[in-house]
Design brief:
Blueprint lengths: L21 E6 L3 H11 L6 E7 L3 H10 L5 E2 L2 H6 L5 E4 L6 H10 L4 E3 L7 H13 L5 E3 L7 H11 L6 E8 L6 H4 L21 H11 L4 E8 L8 E11 L2 E8 L7 E7 L2 E6 L3 E7 L3 H7 L2 H8 L10 E7 L6 H16 L10 H17 L3 E2 L4 H15 L7
Parallel strand pairs: 1-2, 1-4, 2-3, 4-5, 5-6, 7-10
Antiparallel strand pairs: 7-11, 8-9, 8-15, 9-10, 11-12, 12-13, 13-14
Helix pairs in contact: 4-5, 5-12, 6-8, 8-12
Length: about 400
């Protein structure tokens, strides 16, 4: 890879006239790794090629060899990282393994993109982030592809810009993750505490947990109820309802499940001067008030209130304006966009869509939800990491399939 000190985005070719590219090492060629390889091979990721592939499963490597015969292969992440075939890596491996592989890569000076979630528990992520902070010269990012969704980028800009005032309440029902029992029966590690580290919170919903705190802020505490093997024959959570407290009376609710066949994806953000409702992560209805709701309330006298009670809404005429925002970006564009952004960050200094250090926020929230559901009490986001790990290890020991964690 030929790189230069970042100058302008138009400086995209090397001295020999060819396009500057990042040779990406894909560590883990399962479902996610194969998808990213296909994106790159199909030319959907400018400035990136497949540099090498690593997997501990010989059968997975054999399948990859048929698709990408000219791409070097390695049986371990360490061999790939030490090779001269790559300029960066992505970790598409089991959740527990992300930090160790990322740490090895960063310490070797190799730009690192971590798949979501960053890890299973915060202590793992803290170690990874500390190593990354000690090597600021090594690019470090996380695959939060929904931060590259134009719809959510627009919503964040509206909230950050104060267009709906201060956020008072948010609610996200995201139950479009229906999974049949056969999905869980695919492998011994899936939907286990020791192998996967949890259920819907760590597998299906991390992107929504990230978006929720990215847009609405990090809560102070959470009280949660969860069903563990509620509607599926699994040990981990397949149903979650969480109530979070942001302080000053501001709250949020997050509901997710893997057994809702019809499924719902609805995200509401209520502010002091407006409201945003997102349906199916495709359509947002933004209502803006001419002035804060409290001022509108104070301006309606008793006579006006009586009119409202009879269905006469004339007293509110002109108070609310509504905008509809549609997202038509194709599936996969968010993922490939993160890959392209990572390459452009390495080559040209473009700002990362999601810095790797941000990965701890969603993991911390998921951990707090788990801990609250396990203990039956409200849990602060500054929870005791030792208590969380002890509770997790108790469940790993009860499974009797995997070693406990430290």
């Amino acid at each position: 890879m030929t790189t230069t000190t970042p100058t302008t985005d138009t400086d995209t070719t090397a001295s020999d006239g060819t396009e500057k590219v990042v040779r990406l090492g894909i560590i883990g060629i399962g479902t996610q790794g194969d998808m990213y390889a296909k994106f790159i091979a199909d030319g959907l990721v400018p400035h990136m090629t497949i540099g090498a592939i690593a997997d501990i499963d010989p059968e997975a490597l054999a399948r990859a060899k048929e698709l990408y015969p000219d791409v070097p292969q390695y049986s371990t992440a360490e061999e790939l990282i030490a090779s001269h075939d790559i300029d960066a890596v992505i970790t598409t491996i089991p959740h527990y393994d992300h930090p160790d592989v990322a740490i090895a890569s960063i310490e070797a000076g190799v730009p690192t993109l971590v798949e979501k979630p960053a890890a299973v528990y915060t202590r793992q992520v803290t170690r990874m982030n500390e190593v990354a902070a000690a090597h600021p010269e090594v690019p470090f990012a996380i695959m939060f592809n929904q931060r590259n969704n134009p719809l959510y980028q627009k919503i964040k800009a509206i909230v950050d810009g104060g267009e709906i005032g201060e956020v008072l309440r948010s609610n996200w029902i995201i139950t479009t993750w229906w999974r049949p029992q056969g999905y869980y029966n695919q492998s011994e590690w899936r939907a286990t505490w020791g192998g996967e580290g949890g259920g819907v919170l760590v597998n299906q919903a991390p992107h929504q947990l990230d978006l929720w705190q990215w847009i609405c802020g990090v809560p102070k505490s959470v009280f949660a109820k969860a069903g563990f093997g509620f509607r599926r024959d699994i040990a981990v959570e397949d149903e979650v309802t969480a109530l979070v407290d942001y302080g000053d009376g501001r709250t949020g609710v997050f509901v997710t499940a893997t057994h809702d066949l019809a499924g719902t994806d609805r995200f509401e953000i209520l502010g002091t001067q407006g409201k945003i409702v997102v349906d199916n992560s495709k359509t947002a209805t933004v209502s803006r008030y001419t002035k804060p709701e409290k001022e509108i309330s104070d301006s309606v006298d008793t006579a006006g209130a009586r009119k409202l009670m009879t269905g006469d809404l004339s007293v509110l005429e002109g108070v609310v304006s509504t905008e509809t925002i549609e997202d038509s970006s194709p599936w996969g564009a968010q993922h490939s966009g993160v890959l392209e952004n990572f390459a452009r960050h390495i080559l040209f200094g473009e700002e990362l869509l999601a810095a790797g250090a941000d990965g701890i926020k969603g993991v911390r929230l998921a951990n707090a939800i788990h801990l609250s559901a396990w203990t039956g009490r409200e849990v602060g986001l500054d929870f005791d990491e030792d208590e969380y790990l002890a509770e997790l290890n108790t469940r790993i020991a009860e499974e009797g399939k995997f070693a406990q964690r430290d």
